[in-house]
TrEMBL record:
Entry protein name: 30S ribosomal protein S1
Gene3D superfamilies cross-referenced by the UniProt entry: Nucleic acid-binding proteins
Recorded family membership: Belongs to the bacterial ribosomal protein bS1 family.
Keyword annotations: Repeat, Ribonucleoprotein, Ribosomal protein, RNA-binding
Length: 559
């Protein structure tokens, strides 16, 4: 009886167990935490089944695990029984299924979702969205490139879902979209409270070559380098540093682009207001060279007031050199104020005007007629350039080199570096020219030789050479050449060989050329002149007297 009852009871229990619905593998079931040990939570999922899950699977993004004995949790049932006789369960998979449902709703409603960046992958990062893993592209991390994402790792923060595909398990999120939206709202609020001309405090956020970005409390403004100070600022880092708090004035607000222009110098008095009074024309002041260019040098007279010394106003003597070879940056120099244009904020300065004009100094020391001594600096096709006192040059023209030689021949006697003596013949201070003469210090033998001789004069010369084309003659040491055609009135007597070296002959002066230092002489012209004179005195061509009769009478009268 007892055995039969026991069998019946067993059959009833077995039947009851079959009637109970056994949960399907691959579904989410509810379980109760019955113990926590060795970093794991032991969960009773019912149906006389227990399973283990690592505590880390119960951690929310960016938070520590939160699980206690007695808590009811949803888990994912992978297998009803594993090798250890336990149910194989996963909180992470349960959360993933739960998360996908939640994320699909948020994506459809374009709502933000919370997550935490937990890993780095090629092209970006992985984000835990409370059970589902999403991809965060590198370009979507921040509004500006992020060099170090370390501080962002593991921190719970909002994201915007850009794209998701449950079938492929693909989710793409953006942190940048959240920042831009928040930034836009904040910018609009801050800009709405700003007015042009307002003075505000700001923190230097970034420094570039052209200026600095200043955080005005959620919105950035640009402080351009030209608006930092009235003086020249070569680089913003000269007067600003990142993190520094500064006072700035709002110069301009662009409502459409939300761009804000800031200024610091506007909070200081403008030094240009007193420039004309402080720096009268022709006054001399000390300044500091701040910048050197190809066309001149900028000199700071005081903070915020700079003037330009044009290259043409830098030196009396150095005309074609770079300004950097005359002055250097930071050098203190004396300058003269030449012109002021307050409207354009320009001051024209002169460096050479603070020194005496070397041409004026020269003419005081060496008036016309004075003798100088100098070194030949250059030789050109038209003369010599001689170095003089005051780093200036004087020129000896070809025609002023020698009395006896042509300029082209005389210049061959000189070399660069030769020291020569010359006479000052002209000084033009305005044109900066000095004319010199070497031959003026020598004796003018030609002028002395022809003194008193005029064109048409009859002079006696001595034959020094007989050549085929004519004869060379000497008159007071000056050589002249009489061509064959000028040797006689008669063609038959135009023979050079009928003359002898040492013979003396009367000739007529046909030309005196001081430039070439030559006398034009002719025997033929003398004979024609004598004939004409005889005809005028003793007869005429229509009197019937022959030329022989006239010449005979002339000779007789002469006797």
């Amino acid at each position: 009886m007892c055995a039969a009852n026991a069998m019946d009871e067993f059959e009833a229990l077995l039947k009851e167990s079959f009637e109970i619905d056994t949960p399907e593998e691959g579904t989410v079931v509810k379980g109760k935490v019955i113990a926590i040990e060795a970093g794991q939570a032991i969960i009773d999922v019912g149906y006389k089944m227990e399973g283990r899950i690592d505590l880390k699977e119960f951690a929310n993004p960016g938070e520590a695990p939160s699980i206690n004995v007695g808590d009811t949790v949803e888990v994912y049932l992978d297998r009803v029984e594993n090798a250890r006789g336990e149910a194989q369960i996963s909180r992470e998979k349960a959360r993933r299924e739960e998360a996908w449902d939640r994320l699909e709703k948020a994506y459809a409603a374009e709502q933000r979702v919370d997550g935490a960046i937990f890993g780095r992958v090629k092209g970006g990062f992985t984000v835990d969205l409370g059970g589902a893993v999403a991809f965060l592209p590198g370009s979507q991390v921040d509004v500006r490139p992020v060099r170090d994402a370390g501080p962002l790792m593991g921190m719970k923060q909002p994201f915007q879902i850009l794209k998701m595909d449950r079938r492929r398990g693909n989710i793409v999120v953006s942190r940048r979209a959240i920042l831009e939206e928040s930034r836009a709202e904040q910018r609009a609020e801050v800009i709405g409270n700003l007015t042009e001309g307002q003075v505000v405090d700001g923190v230097v956020k970034n420094i570039t070559e052209y200026g600095a970005f200043v955080d005005l409390g959620g919105v950035d403004g640009l402080l351009h380098v030209t608006d930092m100070a009235w003086r020249r600022v070569n680089h913003p880092s000269e007067i600003l540093s990142i993190g520094e708090t500064i006072k700035v004035q709002v110069i301009k607000i662009n409502k459409e682009t939300h761009r804000i222009s800031l200024g610091m110098k506007q909070l200081q008095s403008d030094p240009w207001d007193a420039v004309e009074k402080a720096y009268p024309i022709s006054s001399v002041h000390k300044g500091r060279v701040t910048n050197i260019t190809d066309y001149g040098a900028f000199v700071e007279l005081e903070a915020g007031v700079e003037g330009l010394v044009h290259v043409s106003e830098m030196s009396w003597t150095k005309k074609n050199v770079h300004p950097g070879k005359i002055v250097s940056t930071s050098q203190e120099v004396d300058v003269m104020v030449l012109e002021i244009d307050s409207a354009k904020r320009r001051v024209s300065l002169g460096l050479k005007q603070t020194m005496r004009n070397p041409w004026e100094v020269f003419v005081e020391k060496y008036p016309v007629g004075a003798t100088i001594e100098g070194e030949v600096k250059n030789i050109t096709e038209f003369g010599l350039f001689v170095g003089l006192d005051g780093d200036i040059d004087g020129m000896v023209h070809l025609s002023d080199l020698s009395w006896d030689q042509r300029g082209e021949e005389a210049i061959q006697n000189y070399r660069k570096g030769d020291v020569v003596r010359a006479s000052v013949t002209e000084v033009d201070v305005e044109k900066e020219r000095i004319s010199l003469s070497i031959k003026a210090l020598g004796e003018d033998t030609f002028t002395d030789a022809v003194d008193g001789v005029k064109r048409g004069s009859i002079i006696t010369v001595e034959i020094s050479a007989v050549e085929e084309g004519g004869i060379e003659v000497d008159y007071n040491g000056q050589k002249s050449f009489i061509r064959r055609s000028d040797l006689s009135r008669e063609r038959g007597d135009q023979r050079p060989e009928r003359f002898q070296v040492g013979d003396k002959v009367d000739v007529r002066v046909t030309n005196i050329d001081p430039k070439t230092r030559k006398l034009g002489l002719s025997i033929k012209a003398r004979e024609i002149a004598e004939e004409k004179e005889a005809v005028e005195q003793y007869g005429s061509s229509d009197s019937g007297a022959s030329l022989g009769d006239i010449l005979g009478a002339a000779l007789k009268g002469g006797n």
